[in-house]
Amino acid sequence: MRKFLMTIGADRCPALADEWIETENPYTGEPWAVIPRGREADAYLAVEAAHEAGKGAWGRLTATERGRLLHRLAQLIRENSDTLVDLEVTDVGRRRTELEGGALEYIASYYEYYAGLADKVEGQVTPVDRPGMLHYTTYQPMGVVVCIVPWNGPLLLASTKIAPALAAGNTVVVKPSEFASTSILALAELFDEAGFPPGVLNVVTGYGNEVGSALTSHPLVRKVAFTGGNAGGAAVARSAAEGFRSVTLELGGKSPNIVFADADLDAALAGVSLGIFSTSGQSCMAGSRLLVHRSIADEFVDRLVASMRDATLGDPGEPTTDIGPISTRTQFAAVLEHLDVARREGATAVLGGARALPDGGEKGWFVQPTILTNVTNDMRIAREEIFGPVLVVIPFDTDDEAVAIANDTNFGLAAAIWTSSLARAVGIPPRLEAGTVWVNAYRVVSAMFPFGGMKDSGVGRENGTAAIKEYLETKSIIINATVRTR
Ligand code: NDP
């Protein structure tokens, strides 16, 4: 079995207690590697290493020099893409075609985007209604930033945090999910090679309630950036609040994909399918509620079912695979439990609805792509985040009803509308309670524009120029020019 080590300061190390956690391959359901089970003492060492690096060599670099290192890192991610892709395929069950077809390049692009931004954070001179007073703002790094990352897209969801945090001049400690740590541990080794001083990027592995909570409550930590479920997010936010640490939270969703009768139905079909079935539905932005105009609902669902009926489930490393496994054993059980709930609530599975056993295997964690009709928006399956390849279908009659159903959720991460009407394309997005609204598109995301949630879907925004300010302190400087100076 392969053995991975943590990165703390200049060291690649096991946990102090020399305890290990087995990590499983979702395609086979078998353990394939071990990662260190860090605890409080390991978390403290990592925070101290990050703090020292900030006071030392890293703190002395100019913003342009930080940008150069981030550029070099992006290049190294590309040069090491085979290793990184292999790890995410094996550890997380992400499809190789998806990673090689753009997802890994997208990860590298984060470091380049924020490399370019590092030396372009400008303050402002503000008019003040006091004669002789000059006021201006500057920005400075916060200090040690803790990034807590889930299992569904470890490299990406770590990079959306690490890149702006380092561009802003902070140092970082990453806590990956214990289910999916290996690609982030491999990424950490590239920081050395890129020339980052030791301690700028540290990775400690282990359980959230052991090493994770030790990090979020450490007095030297000034900021916590989290992606994950709502329960974990609330726990992290409570712990950060105790020490008045700033937080950004990117949480779950139950995003509506709204298809109007005037839509280009071919485009809408592709968008609805991409919205829910890519990454086997394990995505915060999954378009898990299909709201479709009643006049086209039957035809649209029939076509969607036909397009997915022959989808190939199987080895995520194979180019012919359309749908990979559920990433963790626990999540697999949770999705099957939701399918039981769907049956009890009286929904009809017009596609799927059960476990799948592709390739004659008995051990992998596969769920059939599932489409559920006879669903109303008050059912649990329409309200709870399932985080699996399960789509609920809810017909609507009027635009107002579509908007009302779309907004009738605790979440507010994303939404999409499919229409050929300019009036709808312009008029409906402002009415939707979601941080991102796509028109005739789904899953279009970029380092270049903000992403994040309203309501229970989160606090703050990742990506775009504004996100770097989430990792900076604003300072007001006021000079009294009426006092004589030499
Ligand atoms: P969690 O939110 O529990 O895990 C996300 C990360 O937070 C993990 O690294 C976890 O570590 C860590 N964590 C959890 N609790 C704490 C804590 N108290 N202090 C510090 N760190 C902590 O996600 P789950 O794996 O439990 O998934 C639960 C549900 O969340 C899923 O069913 C899905 O609905 C949703 N989800 C949403 C994601 C998104 O992208 N928005 C991503 C993943 C899940 P550890 O795993 O070791 O506990």
TrEMBL record:
<dbReference type="InterPro" id="IPR016162">
    <property type="entry name" value="Ald_DH_N"/>
</dbReference>
<dbReference type="InterPro" id="IPR016163">
    <property type="entry name" value="Ald_DH_C"/>
</dbReference>
<feature type="active site">
    <location>
        <position position="250"/>
    </location>
</feature>
<feature type="domain" description="Aldehyde dehydrogenase">
    <location>
        <begin position="20"/>
        <end position="477"/>
    </location>
</feature>
<dbReference type="InterPro" id="IPR016160">
    <property type="entry name" value="Ald_DH_CS_CYS"/>
</dbReference>
<dbReference type="InterPro" id="IPR016161">
    <property type="entry name" value="Ald_DH/histidinol_DH"/>
</dbReference>
<dbReference type="InterPro" id="IPR029510">
    <property type="entry name" value="Ald_DH_CS_GLU"/>
</dbReference>
<comment type="similarity">
    <text>Belongs to the aldehyde dehydrogenase family.</text>
</comment>
<dbReference type="Pfam" id="PF00171">
    <property type="entry name" value="Aldedh"/>
</dbReference>
<keyword id="KW-0560">Oxidoreductase</keyword>
<protein>
    <submittedName>
        <fullName>Aldehyde dehydrogenase</fullName>
    </submittedName>
</protein>
<dbReference type="InterPro" id="IPR015590">
    <property type="entry name" value="Aldehyde_DH_dom"/>
</dbReference>
